[in-house]
Design a protein that fits this description.
Radius of gyration: 18 Å
Distance between the termini: 26 Å
Helix content: 40-55%
InterPro entries: Aldolase_TIM, OMPdecase_type-2, OMPdeCOase_dom, RibuloseP-bd_barrel
Largest sheet: 8 strands, parallel, barrel
Bound molecules: orotidine-5'-monophosphate
Number of strands: 10
Shape: globular
Keywords: Decarboxylase, Lyase, Pyrimidine biosynthesis
Catalytic activity: orotidine 5'-phosphate + H(+) = UMP + CO2
Number of domains: 1
GO molecular function, one term: orotidine-5'-phosphate decarboxylase activity
CATH superfamily: Aldolase class I
CATH architecture: Alpha-Beta Barrel
Number of helices: 12
Order of helices and strands: HEHEHHEHEHEHEEHEHEHEHH
Protein name: Orotidine-5'-phosphate decarboxylase
Strand order of the largest sheet: 1-2-3-4-5-8-9-10
Amino acid sequence: MTTEHLISEIHKKQSFLCIGLDTDLEKIPPHLLEEEDAIFAFNKAIIDATHHLCVAYKPNTAFYEAYGIKGWKALGKTIAYLNENHPEIFTIADAKRGDIGNTSTRYAKAFFEEFGFDSITIAPYMGKDSVEPFLAFENKHTILLALTSNEGAFDFQTQKVDGVPLYEKVLQTSLTYKNADNLMYVVGATKASYLAEIRKIVPKSFLLVPGVGAQGGSLKEVCHFGMNQDIGLLVNSSRGIIYASKNRDFASQAALNAEALQRQMQEELKSMD
Ligand SMILES: O=C(O)c1cc(=O)[nH]c(=O)n1[C@@H]1O[C@H](COP(=O)(O)O)[C@@H](O)[C@H]1O
């Protein structure tokens, strides 16, 4: 999917919501466990109830890998269902990969070609030759971890190298990579105050912002510091939406939580006009 298409969907839906499909069999409604593929049954119900409220879905692959082949199959069915029924929705494989060049190429083929995702999250630690293989794919997006939402972000990411915080180095250096136009960045909602500085380095890039909802980040602050002329934000919530209820009404309750965020986003978009 092109960035222009994503921007037009944001305006059309008045939403820059990304719903995280972090599906955990211990948290889904118990009646679904009778289904042959409970993970897919849950995802399908959530997608059917929420697709009009969001512009992106982000399955975190850990939640699928945790169930081995059964989990990979459910992930495959989920992305196929999205691509077939909602091709206008941006899909993110939250896999946090990155390795030496030829290995990265295999990861890129797996998630972009075999599964058909629009984007993948990548850890930048191994540098240029570990990231560029992902950037080589046309109309596919590589979402580099810049400043993450967790406490551990302060271990390395905010530490200074030559007087510059490492996450700023990641942003600056990545702009020199081949096909850097295909880059987006992860910035945690819990680090919203850093967004003003981040925007000085990457004014035009899309930012994937997880950490509202269960991790306590503020949507208002994220918008205040992080929005650009193209909106430039995909704000993710996973547990805060998909686990709204453990009862048979789980999908409609998830939609209510998604709608509450979408309404706040609509207000933010209005205030930009
Ligand atoms: O790359 C991510 O999506 C990510 C980066 C980050 O800094 N923090 C973060 O929480 N995430 C992911 O975003 C999702 C957040 O889930 P909730 O806290 O349940 O909304 C999980 O899938 C995390 O793995």
